[in-house]
Amino acid sequence: MDFRARSHPSWIGFAVHRVSGLLLALFLPLHFWALGSAIQGEARLDGFLRWAENPLVKLVETGLVILLAAHLAGGLRVMALEFLGWGREQKDLVAASFGLSLLVGLVFLFNVF
Amino acid sequence: MADRAARGQANLWVVQRITAMILALAVLVHLVTILLAMRGGLSAREILARTQGSEAWLGFYVVFALAAGLHGAIGLRNIAGETLGWRGRGLDFCWLALGLLAAAFGIRAAFGLYD
């Protein structure tokens, strides 16, 4: 297998977008179902939120927030590519999308702990 | 037949891009709301005070859930087609049904926040 094409920043951007999309699509029905079940009055929702206070849950949530931000930023890059055409700045956009998603994840981490 | 398949593919591409544009805005609002709400901890009272009786939040979450359900299902369909070779109209309908089911779970949650 020729790995040269896969060391390009745009391929890494594609791979991150695909993996984050896959994980988010699998998580989405669980997220909606759990929320829909938890939102049955204030007491039940508070019980769910207390469960979410567990540090392990917070770490998983941080990962999900990073995945969401990465998929958002990577998606904007894909649409810029499709609607505005290929440009030299694609590499910069990949870097910017990674930076943005890590920043969002860090802000989330500081807020939850 | 091939023409119809190509048209179907193009339609899915359009739906994927329209939902992506809706989601770009919705996810941004969602992330900002999460980051603001997490400051000082979450409470049910705080969340419900924002959403209960608010048609604006209900509308936002219903559109968000529908766009996310469809976008996720089309994405899974594309990945399954490219990596596993799972293709065909029957499978397309299955993905659509799964996407709408996920969206229905989200819409149920949105009404829970509104009531």
Helix content of chain A: over 70%
What is the subunit organization of this protein?
A: heterodimer
Question: Which radius of gyration of chain B do the C-alpha atoms yield?
Answer: 17 Å
Shape of chain B: elongated
Q: How many beta-strand elements of chain A?
A: 0
- Secondary-structure-based class of chain B equals mainly alpha
Query: Do you know the CATH topology of chain A?
Result: 3 helical TM bundles of succinate and fumarate reductases
Q: Give the overall form of chain A.
A: elongated
SSE ordering of chain A: HHHH
Secondary-structure element order of chain B, as H and E?
HHHH
CATH superfamily of chain A: Fumarate reductase/succinate dehydrogenase, transmembrane subunit
| Sheet having the most strands of chain B | none
Give the low-pLDDT segments of chain B: none
Task: Write structural notes for this entry.
The complex is a heterodimer of chains A (113) and B (115). Chain A is mostly helical and 113 residues long. Chain A has a single domain, classed as Up-down Bundle (3 helical TM bundles of succinate and fumarate reductases). Chain A has helices at 9-38, 42-51, 55-84, 90-112. Chain B is built from four helices and no strands. With 115 residues, chain B is an all-alpha fold. In chain B, helix 1 (2-38) packs across helix 3. Chain B has helices at 2-38, 44-51, 55-84, 89-114. Chain B is elongated. The interface between A and B is medium-sized, with 33 and 37 residues.
Summary keywords:
heterodimer; A: 113 residues; mainly alpha; 3 helical TM bundles of succinate and fumarate reductases; 4 helices; B: 115 residues; elongated
Write the layout of secondary structure elements.
The complex is a heterodimer of chains A (113) and B (115).
Chain A: H1 9-38, H2 42-51, H3 55-84, H4 90-112
Helix pairs in contact in A: 1-3, 1-4, 3-4
Chain B: H1 2-38, H2 44-51, H3 55-84, H4 89-114
